[in-house]
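INFO  loader      accepted 1 record
INFO  loader      residues=245
INFO  predictor   begin
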Amino acid sequence: MFVLNDGNERIKNQEKYRMSTSRRNQLAGRKTLPKNTRRKKKRGRKMLRIIMIPLLILLLFLLFKSCIQKKNQYADVDATQPEMDIQLLDINPYSRPGTTIDHVNGIVVHYTANPGSTAQDNRDYFNGLKDSHETSASSNFVIGLEGEIIQCIPTWEMAYASNDRNVDTISIECCHPDENGKFTDATYRSLVQLTAWLCAKYDLTADQVIRHYDVTGKICPKYFVEDEDAWVEFRRNVQDALEKQ
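INFO  predictor   done
INFO  writer      dumping tokens
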């Protein structure tokens, strides 16, 4: 009788232990997996790491390469005289007064504020003011959407572009395709080279290159006013071009 009770007690204790272990596993969210399954999962995680590490390295390399290319995309631009089409305006009181500049102390960058217009359009508009008398306006140079440069007024003569700084600066008008005022790559490259060449010619530094905005507060050139980093980068590109002399 005692032996039977003892056996029953052991069976009950074993069942309780099994139930307790099962309950613990359930509460812990564990599942007992076959060894083969565990090995496969382990190998899968290892393979994932092997694949991801090279992909991460490749991604970092591409990002680095992209940054370098962006930084050096104007590395070939120097301070040599760019090609230009000289189409001087007729001397007249409204766009080319013929007044000589005593000393050039800066370069002023402008934008046309007329999206899609060409360098020729703007040059012809300036010259037409002698007849229309619509306003007084002009620029020493106009850069077109494809990077073409038209010289409208000699660099030793005053243009009507930069208000109080007309008397000691050279002005560059830039065409742009859209309302945001951002220049095309061709326009930008010509602007960097032309500005650098003028700086070298008149012994100026990139710090003496200013925006119309810096003279009057006018939002001109729009993109360089609204994106200060772009303006800083432009002057850096000009300085880099100057250093290639």
